[in-house]
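Standup notes
- HV: blocked on the assembly model, inputs below
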Amino acid sequence: MIVQSTEVANTFAEAFKMWAARVIITAHTPQWAMTAAQSVTGFATSVIGCKCEAGIERDLSRNETPDLRPGVSVLLFAGSSKAVGNRLVERIGQCVMTCPTTACFNGLEQAATTVSVGGKIRYFGDGYQASKQLDGRRLWRIPVMEGEFLIDDRFGVQPAVGGGNLLFLGKDVASTLEAAEAAAAAMRAVPGVILPFPGGLVRSGSKPGSKYKALPASTNDAYCPTLRASASETELEKEVGSVLEVVVDGLDEEAVAEAMRKGIHAAAGTDGLIEITAGNYGGNLGQYHIDLHGLLQSSRY
Amino acid sequence: MKLTLHKVPEVPLEAEVISPVALAGKSALEINKLTLFYGNRTVELGEFFSVEGEANGILELEGDLSRIKLIGSDMSDGQLIIDGDVGTHLGACMSGGEIVVNGNAGDWVGREMSGGRITIKGSAGHMVGSAVRGSAVGIQGGEIIIHGNCRNEAGSGMRRGLIVIGGDSGDFAGVNMLAGTIIVLGHLGIRTGAGMRRGSIVSMNDAEMLPTFSYACTYHPGFLRFYFNHLRQLGLPISDEQIDGEYQRWCGDAIELNKGEILIYQP
């Protein structure tokens, strides 16, 4: 299929069941809220090496936050509800509580499943912590040197989708980067998704397994232009000089698919972009198969 | 369903049967025959009230009910709307639902309640959200919102929940308080927080502190923003300055745990 002069491959992205939480971080200024958000989502590109995937969903105005301060919405994904809870405790404890003027709220109030976060971080208060309950919500006030850190007792977690992806095959680095950047910008604007990799882009896409037994993943040699002549198989035509991937995690399949659809349209037609395709494992690993042609044709998304 | 008072009682009438839950599923005839204590004898409800409509979870009361006690007692669901003044023990031991009084209320509003919300558009008497005499624990949950003033001992023995006084409170607000939050938008009386163990009492005006309370600091308590946002949604006049402002923190009562706090707004 051709979209704005760019070939879109007849394939699918293979995505996985995950669990997700939404964290609302507020602070005295938008800058401090963003500082905390960037810190709490640091080193969270892939569950393979980071135990979770996290990213910034969007900025929030004063009127959108529980405490009427500027804020940032963050999404965090992991393989189970328990793992999400553990990562939230670690990351909020180290990266949000430590950041001046912040407070931290559950952003999935309707979720049927919850995990204890503030209820664990509260012990930092060494007995001086105090709880407040209002309208069915329990908050912890933890005394800190700067004042008080306020955090929800429990955070909602919900089933989610991780590992939606698009691969951009270009003639060189510059054109591939331009296409992938345009896609990432469009995808990031979709509510309920994050792009967990640096700037939303991945240059080192991986395949499962390795010749080295200790490694769960290794370089995706079939998409490495430098290995076209030496790897056992290649997916690249000879004019492809560079490949970049955008990985997208979302609160549901529809959000991931919508982000991918917007990403394709935003990148297609970029000078030097040869093909848009997606990564999969033959359909054997992931629970979600997001068909690229289906995305562009179906009214479902 | 609507109950209208057609005969003002000369002595207090005990009407704990008047609540949306207690009247649910009953016909007007059955409701007319419900018995109430009137002084030292029993009377039928119909002797004082006329009944209209069907019981559908929303109960309206009309008339000068200032001598009617215990309305909404043990209420766990539904909505009770009272047009007029109401007597003592409104919503006693209530666990859910909502009571709105478009008038004033007597003493003991929401005493020992554990859930739901009581809103008094006028003023209330003594012992709002308190424990009964001889009991150590008052309100254990829910919200009592008084738009006007209240008299003494609001939140006596309070363990959990929220009491908001839009005007002034009397003396001994939060006496023997165990936890929870009392917010007074007007002035506090004297001896606020006497014997409190934990919990928060917030005032928008300067107050005289007991000598067993100690000044800690002047700061911005973040949790108040969360409460003020809630109060604004309930129609209470909270200014941006109060939301963004700083508050003196006084800790006490030192004769108890010393883990309670009184927060005084610093304009």
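- HV (later): unblocked. Chain B touches chain A at residues 141, 160-162, 181, 198, 200, 219-223, 225-230, 243, 259 (CB under 8 Å). The helical segments of chain B are 20-23, 28-32, 222-233, 240-244.
- Next: hand off to the docking folks.
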